[in-house]
Amino acid sequence: MTTKNANAQESQSRPILSFLKDLPNICSLAGLGCSLLSIYFLITGIYAAAMIGMIWAVAFDWADGLIARRMKGRTGADREFGGQLDLLIDIVSYGVTPAVLILSYANFSAAFLPVAFVMLVFGAIRLSYFSTFGLSDDAKYTGLAIDNNSIFLVLVFMGAGYFEQSTFAIILAVCGLTLSVLNVSQIKTPKLSGNPVNVAILAAYTLAVTAIYGSTLLQV
């Protein structure tokens, strides 16, 4: 019996909600909650809160991988289920949310729908490619990892106050398209989330972003 078949049989013998007991999965779902809040705040126009939600979604995503690698006693089914859960959450966090950011800041102008569509399509292709082929032989990603999209856009959005909204909407759209092209390119990039030092750097970045945008919210 292959490992995949064994994992499938083990999964089918367990209640679906039993996978909620897995700490990495709880962490992944916390990231999904952050993305949902981000989308809500993007729709309602509270962009500072949306940026906080976007970066915390990344933080939880990186944390769940770190926790999963350090946990003992996880079964093959736990790992396979967690991988699929991550994939589905990533399309929301790094595909849908950035696309909604572009549309929202452009006042949901139909002219920006093609930009949002390309971001979603390239994001889905990027995630499907990684799910199918994984890392390259030298343990690197092929194409820019899609979580970098949110990390970069949250940083770029700090410049929103220096431009007219219509101008900055175009800047965001150009950034979004550029990131999408990089996602499906042949460039090789390291797996940053696999290094505890990089996780610590992201944690510091997340706290800094939260403080900066949080102070903006307090001034409203």
Describe the protein in words.
Helix content is 73%, strand content 3%. With 220 residues, the chain is mostly helical. The protein has a single domain (19-219), classed as Four Helix Bundle (Hemerythrin (Met), subunit A), CATH 1.20.120. The chain has a two-stranded antiparallel ribbon with strand order 1-2. α3 runs antiparallel to α4 (76-105). The chain is globular. The model has no long low-confidence stretch (mean pLDDT 90).
Radius of gyration: 18 Å
Report the β-strand fraction as a percent range. under 5%
Helix content: over 70%
Instruction: Provide mean pLDDT, rounded.
Output: 90
Q: Summarize the main sheet.
A: 2 strands, antiparallel
Shape: globular
Note the quaternary state here: single chain
Backbone structural class: mainly alpha
**CATH fold group:** Four Helix Bundle (Hemerythrin (Met), subunit A)
For the record, give the distance between the C-alpha atoms at the N and C termini, rounded to a whole number: 61 Å
Strand order of the largest sheet: 1-2
The count of DSSP E runs of length 2 or more, i.e. the number of strands, is 2
- Counted up, domains total 1
Give the SSE order as H and E letters. HHHHHEHHEH
Low confidence ranges: none
Total of DSSP H or I helical runs spanning 4+ residues: 8
CATH class: Mainly Alpha
Named CATH architecture: Up-down Bundle
